[in-house]
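Predict the 3D structure for this chain.
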Amino acid sequence: MQTDQMRVARAAKALGARINDEVVILQVDRGTYLKLNSHASAIWDLLEEPTTLGQLCERLQERYAVAPETCRADVVEVLEQMRLESVVETGT
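Done. Predicted structure below.
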């Protein structure tokens, strides 16, 4: 279960580049690419420095008009996809 204190960071072997309003990430160890839409790109941008799930959601709620529950559910889903692609790391 993800808590607001869960730490989230970009993986060391994940290199991102911005193309217009989207980000493309190369996962170096796997040699795979991941293309993020504008909302997932906003999450990636906020992960420039390691943060917590709670802080990430707070910053996104300030940027977008979204209910806290909706924001958290969407962020958790995106982070899980990023974790499965090995471009972010999560922990306590």
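The first helix runs from residue 38 to 46.
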